[in-house]
Amino acid sequence: MPRAQRLSLAGFGLATVASAALLLWAGQAYFFFSDELSWFSEAPPDYDPGVLLRPSNTHLIAVPRIVHATLLHAFGPEYLPWRVTGVIGVVVCAGLFFVLARRRIGELALLPTVVLLFLGTSWDTVVSPVGLPFLIATGAGLGSLLALERSDRRGDIAACVLAAVAVASHSFGLIFLVGVAVSVLVRKDRVRRAWIFAVPLVLYVLWWALVTRPPGAGGSLAQVSNLLLLPPYAGVALGASLAAVTGLNELDFATVASFNRLPERSWVLTPVLGLAGGVLVLLRLRHGSIHPAMWVFLATLVAFLASIGVSVGPGRPPTAARYLFPGAVIVLLVATEAARGVRFSRRAVVALVAVTALSLAVNLFHLLEAKRFLSAYAINAGPTLAMVELARAEVEPSFRPGRQARGASPREVGVSAGAYLRGTSNWGSIAPTLEEVRRRPGAVRDRADVVLARALGLELVPAAARPPRGRCAVPREARAGRPARVDLRPGRRTVLANIGRGRAVVALRRFGPSFAASAGEIGPGETAFLGVGGDAAAEPWEVRVSGEAVRVCPL
Predict the structure, then answer these.
(1) Are residues 406 and 492 in the same domain?
(2) 412-452 pLDDT, tens per residue?
(3) pLDDT band at residue 213, thresholds of 50, 70 and 90?
(4) pLDDT in tens, 224-273
(5) For a designed S-S bond to 325, which of 122, 195, 199, 214 qualifies (C-beta 3.0 to 4.6 A apart)?
(6) What DSSP character marks residue 257?
(7) Are residues 290 and 402 in the same domain?
(8) Count of beta carbons in the 10 Å neighbourhood of residue 391
(9) What is the domain count for the chain?
(10) Strands (E), 395-466
(11) Which of 83-92, 315-324, 350-359 has the highest mean pLDDT?
(12) Per residue in 110-136, pLDDT tens?
């Protein structure tokens, strides 16, 4: 084996190990994120086909659902296996790209491969395993294109199976299916081999017709109104992918990611990069011979840009981080195919190394930024779910912490209480224990109190009549003009009577140091009930009433 090949393979091995080690180190404190909470809750212990084929945000993700159910069966409700699976997905995608790119530009394929291994700009695909559906679809799609290059029966069968896996993993699999179809159709034996892409396509159409067509079962994210804006949307999506692989997106050192603030970046250059990328492609098509594989990768790129463009909507901008990894893979495939047969000068190689170094620096910054956000999310999301479990007997099944306890719960905890508690019944709890919650920072425990109060519906209820005076007393603090404090044990109720002239504000705490949970206000001369059901925590609620004077009547 030539020395250059040995160095290239060694470099790929070292980069792979470094990427895996960095991603696993960065994710030590991570927790089930966003859609992963729904996937955990819905994972069927019996591999029920009806659940496996259920759309997730309109996407078919049957293969990831099978993977998740298998991980839960094998390891229980532990997050480490999910993270390891995500890292494997990144490595496999990068490895398949490396093989395809090496066939076109030789050992220089190592440079774009290294960028993919550390593509922190696409944090919710590379850094967090929530991007597993994208990774499986991308990896299976690359494997299908690679199998077709064998040009034999075994390769055709493998390409068909892998294309079906890609399509059954995420709608992005359809993008690679377009490339597979073009790869078959540009050959003379296209009719005889059409089954390679026809079988996965027919299976997907059947799923779409039988599973997503019933009312309320699902729909499409594509919007007809976006067709008029498709060219600018596609240009921005292309520019975003180019910015991710070149490092030409602005770094924001002033903004610090927090548990409710996602990693951000500037995309000022994306329209320029998108236009430049389109011009370079057109120039390449006009000059020099075009290998049939160029049409395959260009068709895949066009399908990618079109799918992004027609799907733009709230939460789905063309620059969304989750799109950048598959977008970067496809853009780099086009670039390596365009450079097929080119003899790079020493200066050109130095320039490519410099661009790779810039990209690595920027993407590592974004990777660490994502680490800060996901770690901050994790330390808050766990106690949020612990409070949902504590309120199991009282919480409404439709309660969603990310919406109904906004500001206290991370927005990404969007799973309903009913779905989550069913998941814990099937697989066990993923939340920290109450003892672990008690050891969290005070601000986190304050937010947990708010979530618990919202989950229990803990608020003042107007009382129709005053309770007997013999049961009531004015707390010592109220007599001294300070806010009154009263313990309220689970399973008990109390009546609060405002005997002052101003409004009395009622706040609560249980695990946190501050009275962060609000129960409402009592007007002058008004009386209200406050009570909670029983639960497993030993701590009572502490009630603080701020006002001129208040009478407390335990029941």
Answers:
(1) no
(2) 888 999 999 999 999 999 999 999 999 999 999 999 999 99
(3) low
(4) 666 776 788 888 888 888 888 888 776 655 455 566 666 666 666 777 77
(5) 122
(6) -
(7) no
(8) 24
(9) 3
(10) 461-462
(11) 83-92
(12) 999 999 999 999 988 999 999 999 999
Secondary structure string (H, E, C) spanning 485-546: EEEECCCCEEEEEECCCCCEEEEEECCCCCCCEEEEEECCCCEEEEECCCCCCCCCEEEEEE
Q: What share of the chain is helix, strand, coil (3-state, %, to 5)?
A: 60, 10, 30
User: For position 259, what pLDDT does the model report?
Assistant: 61
Final residue of a structural domain among 354, 377, 400: 377
Backbone angles phi, psi at 522, to 5 degrees: -120, 125
pTM: 0.90
As to burial, measured by CB atoms within 10 angstroms (0-12 exposed, 13-18 middle, 19+ buried), residue 252 is middle
**Which sign, positive or negative, has the C-alpha torsion 458, 462, 464, 470?**
positive
Of the chain, the end-to-end C-alpha distance in Å amounts to 85
Packing angle of the helix pair 62-75, 132-148 (nearest 10 deg): 120
| CA–CA dist 515, 546 (Å, integer) | 11
- Cβ atoms of 231 and 306 within 8 Å: the answer is no
Same-domain pairing of 411 and 394? yes
CATH of the domain at 473: 2.60.120
Helix (H, G, I), strand (E, B) or coil at 30: coil
Q: Which of 369, 130, 126 is nearest to 262 (CA)?
A: 369
Same structural domain, 178 and 318: yes
Token pair 């079109």 is found at: 306
